[in-house]
């Protein structure tokens, strides 16, 4: 699955780069590519130009998260089945990671239902789940950008009713440069490897 996922990501980044290159050539005011951006690994998610809105109604790109280890899941807040378990898994992981290592970690929830999950709804959800510190990040984007990001994570989802989705349950861990380093699929699984990977990356 990892090889397939990386191929998808490489294709997405390649297409994005081609589009950006075309846009730059047609623009009178080309933007300089910073040295910092040039240093990003090829498979970094921080190459993606997609824009997201946080639970605090702030517009960001994924690159705004650079510098922290990221534990990422995709959910929707009205979910009554798998998502509460996935949220609980993330909370348990956060509690088990040492305080010192947690200083360099963000726990990110990306909505697969951006129409319903407004910033206000995400903010309420964060408070309801006692995830309202800066360490917890909730994001919503366009349908297109959400699908693109899901493809990179090998997360599949499908709307099966006006209010319900079927979806993969995957926790993904990224290093400080936005490169995917580890994934765990399932609910209520042994989280020791996930915690070990987060703490290991937090040291680097």
Automatic annotation (TrEMBL):
Gene3D superfamilies registered for this protein in UniProt: Glutaredoxin (3.40.30.10)
Transmembrane portions of the chain: none
Keywords per UniProt: Copper, Disulfide bond, Metal-binding
Disulphides: 79-83
Domain Thioredoxin: 34-203
Record bears the keyword rRNA-binding: no
UniProt GO molecular function: metal ion binding
Metal-binding among keywords: yes
Top-rank taxon: Bacteria
InterPro entries hit by this protein: SCO1/SenC, Thioredoxin-like_sf, Thioredoxin_domain
Ligand binding (Cu cation): 79, 83, 167
Family from the record: Belongs to the SCO1/2 family.
PANTHER family reported for this sequence: ELECTRON TRANSPORT PROTIN SCO1/SENC FAMILY MEMBER (PTHR12151), LINALOOL DEHYDRATASE_ISOMERASE DOMAIN-CONTAINING PROTEIN (PTHR12151:SF25)
Protein name: Protein SCO1/2
